[in-house]
Design a protein that fits this description.
This protein has 5 helices and no strands. The chain has helices at 4-47, 49-57, 62-92, 107-133, 137-141.
Length: 142
């Protein structure tokens, strides 16, 4: 004889472990994406250092440089989100048998994922954008 809680716990232990493992891999993928966006935007700022220096020398405000860098980083993220949403909606039909208690085209998920990825992209773009805005125009023009 065993308690009902123990029987229920054993019955859901494998799916719970799989969900925990999937969540850990999702967090790792998000961290890798943030590092990748950070590296790409940092490279963009480094390559366009002279242009940013000229803009600053001609009177551009640092917030305009930050806006420029953030706009370009978020534009890439928006394109990726649109492509990802289309691919996810096409793949959702194939994954229907794996989804428990969730509709294949769950509107909450399809709204939350782009928001989370947008915030992660924004966080990854802030540091290079501020670094670009803090460039000394004289040093950048040399």
């Amino acid at each position: 004889m065993r308690a009902l809680d123990e029987i229920a716990s054993r019955a859901v232990s494998t799916p719970r472990f799989a969900a925990s493992l999937l969540g850990a891999f999702a967090l790792l993928a998000l961290a890798l994406a943030v590092v990748g966006v950070y590296g790409t935007v940092s490279l963009f700022v480094a390559q366009r250092g002279r242009e940013i220096g000229v803009r600053l020398a001609l009177g551009a405000e640092p917030r305009e440089i930050i806006r420029l860098v953030l706009r370009q980083g978020l534009a890439l993220a928006a394109m990726g989100a649109v492509i990802g949403l289309v691919a996810a909606s096409l793949a959702a039909r194939a994954l229907t048998s794996w989804l428990y208690g969730v509709a294949p085209l769950d509107p909450v998920t399809f709204a939350a994922v782009p928001v989370v990825l947008g915030l992660a992209t924004l966080a990854a773009c802030i540091v290079p954008a501020r670094r670009g805005a803090a460039l000394d125009p004289i040093t950048a023009l040399r």
